[in-house]
Write a structure and sequence with these properties.
Shape: elongated
Number of helices: 2
Mean pLDDT: 90
Radius of gyration: 25 Å
Structural class: mainly beta
Number of strands: 30
Strand content: over 45%
Helix content: under 10%
CATH superfamily: Single-stranded right-handed beta-helix, Pectin lyase-like
CATH topology: Pectate Lyase C-like
Distance between the termini: 94 Å
CATH architecture: 3 Solenoid
CATH class: Mainly Beta
Largest sheet: 18 strands, parallel
């Protein structure tokens, strides 16, 4: 065989290899991937060939894409490092995380948006957090989730700019929701049950919580140690303290709660306002619009309640 023929064939082989590599790269990631109990993480995560775990599917999903649960099952812990939606799609979409680990760890950054929808997270009594982040990213949405049995907390979103939690149940955790990064949050139609503390604020966080029940929490249903907590149309019952405005020592800023159209009953203490140290120029303040029902508690009111007028 002459040199020219060898060169031609070699060129064709190389060109074919490049084409195959190009095809491989094109299909390496998709905007939508799928997981199933019968899947395999060596698959390309399409509906026809789903992956087995959320972690496996994440590597094959583009930023701003979505991972969809094809059929009910457990899909393992996952660390999220980009904008993504994980959607249970009406199926049972479980994650178990024991031995001081997290079900979902978020290490996204910048303008990343993370959406968690329709998931069931269990800490088995020894897991650390259901959802935990320590990096600064843009937005976290938690929708229609069930989170239970985590030693430290159900949701701890870290230094997130904004968090939205709705239609979610959090139970048997150290703290149900711990907002201690100084951002803003909206919580609506949730249940915080049998935790150490239902909802906890620190570091100047600004939170609006509505249509939410905090019940059976050992310490308090709703508590702010530094930050503004607006409570509208909520129920606090059978807690150590129903609503607690509790200023931590200086140099922390003011702790403020505004309570409206809410029921506070069957707690050891209903409404409680106090300070760890002398409040000085940054007192804790518990405002009531006067349209709340506060009765049937061991002590209905402890501290000073400040009336607040408004339409």
């Amino acid at each position: 065989m002459n040199t020219r023929n060898i060169s031609t064939k070699l060129s064709l082989v190389i060109a074919g290899a490049i084409c195959l590599l190009s095809v491989s790269l094109v299909y390496a990631q998709s905007n939508r991937t799928w997981v199933s109990p019968s899947g395999d993480d060596s698959n390309n995560c399409t509906a026809a060939k789903p992956c087995r775990t959320f972690a496996g599917a994440l590597t094959k999903t583009n930023a701003d894409g979505e991972i969809v649960v094809q059929s009910s099952g457990g899909f393992g812990p996952v660390t999220i490092d980009k904008s993504i939606t994980i959607d249970g799609a009406g199926n049972y979409a479980g994650i178990q995380a024991g031995s001081e680990s997290n079900a979902i760890t978020i290490q996204a950054t910048g303008s990343d948006v993370v959406v968690l929808r329709g998931l069931t997270l269990s800490g088995l009594g020894s897991g650390s957090y259901g959802v935990r982040a320590s990096t600064s990213y843009a937005v976290l949405h938690v929708e229609n989730c069930v989170i239970s049995n985590f030693v430290n907390g159900g949701i701890s979103p870290g230094p997130t700019a904004a968090i939205f939690i709705q239609d979610t149940v959090i139970s048997e955790c150290g703290r149900g929701i711990s907002l201690d990064w100084g951002g803003k949050a909206v919580i609506d139609h949730c249940r915080l049950e049998n935790n150490g503390t239902g909802l906890y604020l620190l570091l100047g966080t600004q939170v609006t919580v509505s249509n939410t029940v905090a019940s059976g929490n050992a310490n308090s249903g709703f508590e702010t140690d530094w930050g503004t907590l607006n409570i509208e149309s909520c129920v606090a019952s059978n807690n150590g303290t129903g609503i607690y405005v509790h200023l931590a020592p200086s140099p922390n800023g003011p702790a403020i709660a505004v309570v409206s159209h809410s029921t506070v009953t069957n707690n050891q203490i209903g409404l409680r306002q106090d300070c760890v140290s002398v409040c000085g120029s940054v007192p804790s303040v518990l405002y009531s619009r006067g349209n709340n029902t506060v009765q049937g508690n061991g002590t209905d009111v402890s501290g000073t309640i400040t009336p607040l007028n408004g339409t």
